[in-house]
Design brief:
- GO terms for molecular function: monooxygenase activity; nucleotide binding.
- The protein is an alpha+beta fold.
- Among the domains are: about 190 residues, FAD/NAD(P)-binding domain; about 80 residues.
- The chain is built from 16 helices and 21 strands.
- Helix 1 packs parallel to helix 7 and helix 3 packs across helix 16.
- The longest helix is centred in the last third of the chain and has 28 residues.
- Bound molecules: flavin-adenine dinucleotide.
- The site of flavin-adenine dinucleotide (FAD) has 38 residues, from helix 1, strand 2 and helix 10.
- Flavin-adenine dinucleotide (FAD) binds next to helix 1, strand 2 and helix 10.
């Protein structure tokens, strides 16, 4: 008999999981897994989540989404990382007002690790993000990461996307149905539990009781299955990450030909930060803040100040969230994916990335033999560790700031709000930079390159004076830095602009 999966919820997480599992578990094959997704017409999707992580390319390719169609249908643009403004110093209080976290990893030219040489000053006056790889300079000039002739999801520079979240859910829905997913529009109003605590079925308003072998909870913050029915506790991380509110707006470009930024611009504010994401016809801009450090009215004023005169009449949407996650996300025959599982905050776009990771693990650990406990144990251990590690990485952006101008920043740098695991890593990196031994390849979303970009972008000091005498490839390093500069010039001269590539995709497929 065919195994059956029921996904409850049709936001980004639900449709991404459905389309992905349909491909990996053969929903369109007679003996593959039958997948049904039920989504409520009355309960909306969150509708934000416009920034992604490079893993999205492989996920979308697996689901079968054509890249040019993604651009056309979802207003998608090419994202090459994040630019952080005023995170290190408050405006006007320090020479350095921005740094980048590009997706491209540092160029290990001929295996030579360039970072120690940069720390010793061989990179000249340039920062690590610009001297280690060509991407930052190319993105600063709004270059795209790929050429029109590159095949789908491939480019000389590493990238992800910005897109309209609602349009994406629509495109994912269409493709998931093509991949064999059965779609029901209905509201689940009761979750039925068996005696052993497993889910026996879900009662819907119009389709009666639906049952399955595995239930995937993609009901967003409502967490109808994993939280309300199965009572799995949620672990708040508010003591570490203070932001718990967001106000979002959309702003059209002044002119249709305006350049499209090729990274998410994250500008620190007195009690949070503002994201600025360039889509094809509009920007998505939002203020993320801590309600313990400011109030909604003041936060909206800050957002409107950022939007300027052009945004004076812009509609805004308010969001409430609590940074945190469930330590257990797979219980018996129920597994949570998306906001029902956890969410930190929009910084570094981990929301959709975690949904991708979870969908991938469900496919890899699918309990074909009916052994749910073994799959659940492995899934839970892996995801928990990922959450803990991502929490440290996000907190890093705040806790090494030199800002002391407001209570928000003073509280953020206080050791009491920094996890011990992060304090320990920072301790290691006083005398050596992060390297692969600090990273677990099976777990970490962020590699040592990401940690390095943020640490050194924020002015972290690693004292290499004791090691300096053991370094011998000084000239090679200088040549390698010069080569990165040359590559950046080449990229700027030869890659199309972000807008030109988006325009290209309106009428043609990539790789032609
Ligand atoms: P939702 O979008 O809330 O979808 C829930 C679904 O469940 C809906 O279809 C609803 O109808 C259905 N549902 C609920 N209850 C029932 C029921 N009883 N019966 C039937 N159906 C039901 N992530 C990123 O990766 N990048 C970002 O830049 C980013 N920015 C964000 C900014 C903010 C302010 C916030 C709050 C989040 C952001 N996220 C971001 C997270 C991202 O929005 C989510 O990861 C993503 O939207 C997935 O949401 P979801 O599908 O889990 O939930």
């Amino acid at each position: 008999m065919r195994k059956r999966v029921l996904i409850v919820g049709g936001g980004t997480a639900g449709w991404l999981t459905a389309g992905y599992l349909a491909k990996r578990l053969g929903a369109d094959l007679p003996d593959g897994v039958a997948i049904t997704l039920v989504e409520s017409r009355d309960i909306g999707v969150l509708g934000v989540g416009e920034g992604t992580f490079p893993t999205i390319r492989r996920t979308l390719a697996t689901i079968g989404i054509d890249e040019a169609e993604l651009v056309r249908r979802c207003g998608a643009t090419f994202k090459q990382g994040a630019k952080f403004v005023h995170w290190r110093h408050a405006p006007g209080q320090g020479a350095t007002d921005h740094y980048s976290h590009p997706f491209q990893v540092a160029d290990a030219s001929d295996g030579l690790d360039l970072l120690p040489y940069w720390l010793l000053g061989h990179g000249g006056a340039e920062n690590w993000d610009e001297v280690s790889n060509p991407q930052k300079k190319a993105a600063d000039r709004q270059r795209a990461p790929k050429l029109p002739t590159n095949p789908d999801y491939v480019g000389p520079l590493n990238y992800a996307f910005h897109f309209d979240a609602i349009a994406l859910a629509g495109l994912l829905r269409e493709q998931a149905i093509k991949n064999g997913v059965r779609h029901l529009t209905d509201t689940v109003n009761e979750v039925l539990l068996a005696e052993d605590g497993a889910i026996a079925g879900v009662r819907t308003e119009q389709n009666g009781v639906l049952d399955a072998d595995l239930y995937v909870d993609c009901t967003g913050f409502r967490a109808e299955l994993i939280g309300k029915a199965m009572k799995v506790p949620f672990r708040s991380c508010r003591d570490v990450l203070f932001c718990n509110r967001a106000i979002a707006a959309q702003l059209p470009y002044a002119r249709p030909s305006d350049p499209i930024a090729s990274y998410t611009i994250s500008t620190a504010q007195e009690s949070g930060w503002i994201w600025d994401i360039g889509l094809d016809r509009r920007r998505g801009i939002g203020h993320v803040y801590s309600s313990d450090h400011t109030d909604d009215e003041a936060a909206e004023r800050v957002l409107r100040g950022y939007l300027g005169a052009a945004g004076a009449d812009a509609d805004v949407r308010h969001f409430k969230f609590e940074a945190g996650y469930r330590e257990v996300n797979w219980v018996k025959n129920c597994v949570a994916v998306g906001l029902s599982s956890g969410f930190f905050e929009p910084l570094e776009a981990t929301g959709i990335a975690f949904a991708e990771v979870s969908a991938g693990m469900i496919a890899n650990l699918f309990p074909w033999g009916g052994d749910y406990e073994t799959s659940a144990r492995q899934f839970n251990a892996n995801l928990l560790r990922r959450y803990e590690r991502a929490l440290d990485f996000i907190k890093l952006h705040y806790c090494i700031s030199e800002r002391r101008d407001t209570a928000f920043w003073r509280d953020n740098v206080a050791d009491a709000s920094v996890p011990d695991s992060l304090l320990e890593m920072l301790d290691r990196w006083r005398f050596r930079p992060p390297n692969e031994l600090d990273i677990d390849g099976q777990i970490d979303i962020f590699t040592e390159a990401s940690w390095q970009y943020v640490l050194y972008g924020m002015g972290w000091k690693t004292d290499l004076s004791a090691k300096a005498g053991a370094l011998r490839y000084h000239e090679d390093a200088r040549r390698a830095f010069a080569e990165v500069r040359r590559q950046a010039e080449y990229a700027i001269a030869n890659l199309p602009s972000n807008r030109d590539l988006v325009e290209y995709a309106q009428t043609r497929r990539f790789g032609g």
